[in-house]
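Record type: monomer structure entry
Structure origin: computed from sequence
Chain ID: A
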Amino acid sequence: MRIHLSCVLLLGAIVTTALMAQTATLAGQVPADSLGHIEVAVNYTAMRANVITSDSFWMQGGSVQVHGQFWRGLGVVADIAGQHTTNINSSGVALDMVTATFGPRYTWSPAHSRYSLFGEGLVGDAFAFNGLFPTASGPDTGSFDLAVKGGGGINLWLSRHVALRALEAYWLRTQLPNTTTNVQNNLQLGAGVVIRVK
């Protein structure tokens, strides 16, 4: 339930920010060219889970991001990503994980170019299920814990409203129960399509 609530709150904040920026422009308080856009990205993602240990493994999935740019290159982004693997290192154990994170993004777009670069730092929740997690009362099939995500990517604009997400790369830290530190450091890579809706 916390995942749905945090996403609803973030999407509300993005819409509110965009409406406030539009109102300020109409009132002449902010130059129109200082404001950004609202973009939706749909990506394929691959994640190398727990990359700093010898038992790391690959997961695959996708993500949806909503980005609201409210002043020059500054904005906020909500990211919902899902990952899946059926057999962790031939153990017969599967794992599914959904992360819901949000936070600030800075986008740099050189003048008269067809690409933009962005970097962001996000925080939220990780919900892992269909796996095995050690607890004081015995193994559990799911866990709900902190997720911290940092990274960036590059967009190649095909038109004013459509871009290819050529590459995105993130470090994702989760704090799911395990038999050692209860911390996982993951490398998430992706590519996809970006639609500018404003």
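Annotation 1: The mean pLDDT is 82.
Annotation 2: The beta strands are 38-49, 57-71, 74-85, 95-108, 115-129, 143-157, 162-174, 184-196.
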